[in-house]
Amino acid sequence: MGMIHCEYARLAADDFDKARTDPTWALEHIDELAGEWVQMDLPAQEARYFSIGTVWGPLHNVLRTHGEMPVDPVQGGAALGSAKGITPVRYLGPEDVEKAAAFLVGTSFDTLAPLADTTRVCDEEVCPDPSEHATETDAERLGQAYGELAAFYGAAAEAGDAVVLMLN
């Protein structure tokens, strides 16, 4: 099995409504957004598609250890479609995106950094090979990914967008 990446897509209200009724269209639309993101190399706050790469495991563990997330911005949400990747494609509606953004933007990574546990780098039920995330426990890398994730969710909340989450 290759490296597992955590990827996100922002969907405007009309696209979000269509995605919930037509998951096939949703996955095709998300693939289009991914192609645009790769070509344009946009910063997280401007991107409609975004990835935190393989750092999702250690970052998720830091967030869960903190324990005060109102919603899970890494593996939370409701199922949107079948498992195209490692887990089913999931989404957070605009209200949950606002909650996630408020937490991420309002909580500095400096507050979270002491919670990083280099022995727990991945959720075993999702990632059977934690060794693939071992290099992702560096505090600088976690802080960078956290800042990008906060910027992405902040922009999505400001626009009233839903966010689709995928582990691929």
TrEMBL record:
SUPFAM superfamilies reported in the protein's UniProt record: Hypothetical protein yfbM
Superkingdom in the source lineage: Bacteria
One Pfam family of this chain: DUF1877
Protein name (record): DUF1877 family protein
